[in-house]
Amino acid sequence: MGQETQIEGYSAIVQRTFSDRKRTNILKRAEQLTIVFLLPKVPKFISPNVLTLIGTLGSGLVFLAFVLGTYIANWYLLLGIIGLVINWLGDSLDGRLAYYRNIQRRWYGFALDIIADWIGIVLIGFGYYIYAKNGTQIIAFTFVALYGWSIIISQLRYKITNEYRIDSGFVGPTELRFIIALILIIEVLFQGSIAYLAGLITIILLIINTADSLKLLKLGDLKDKTHD
């Protein structure tokens, strides 16, 4: 009976904490379990806004890792992995903490989350721009532009369906962080590989965005016909 009560309590926390969005990413279950585990451990003096700032500082550390990797030593890129972890902590816990503490501000949080995400990806992209060589800097610009496109898609989907999703199928921001971390490790081991891997990621993101845009247009067309 105690175990059933514990499961019910956990389910209630998950439902309340993630009530504002639908997740479809591969790591959804593990991520939600981790977040629910961490939320009660966040000190009272740390607010959701502070967590948002921490997440942005994590992106700043990734930027710094690229700078140090460019001008000092290649292995400094590994600092970027720590930055990605910090970014995940801030970005994943800020809004969830607000819902957990029942102090959510839906539209304020929605706007702040988008702004912080954009600043974070610009910092990471600019860091790679500094690190990139032999004309591959265009990949950094393209990646940032495509990520911006994916943000626009999520907002338009929200407008059309009233369902906020930050994932594209099985891939979400958390999976993207893992991929970036893996690219940094491979670059430290095999210097120069980052240009090919970043180029591959950019192509995949282009394909995903194109497919999502076509789906979005179909949803818009369906809604127009439904409301006629």
Automatic annotation (TrEMBL):
The chain crosses the membrane at residues 45-66, 73-90, 110-131, 138-158, 178-208. Keywords: Membrane, Transmembrane, Transmembrane helix. The keyword Transmembrane helix applies. It comes from the Bacteria. InterPro entries: CDP-OH_P_trans, CDP-OH_PTrfase_TM_dom. This is CDP-alcohol phosphatidyltransferase family protein. The lineage of its organism: Bacteria, Pseudomonadati, Bacteroidota, Flavobacteriia, Flavobacteriales.
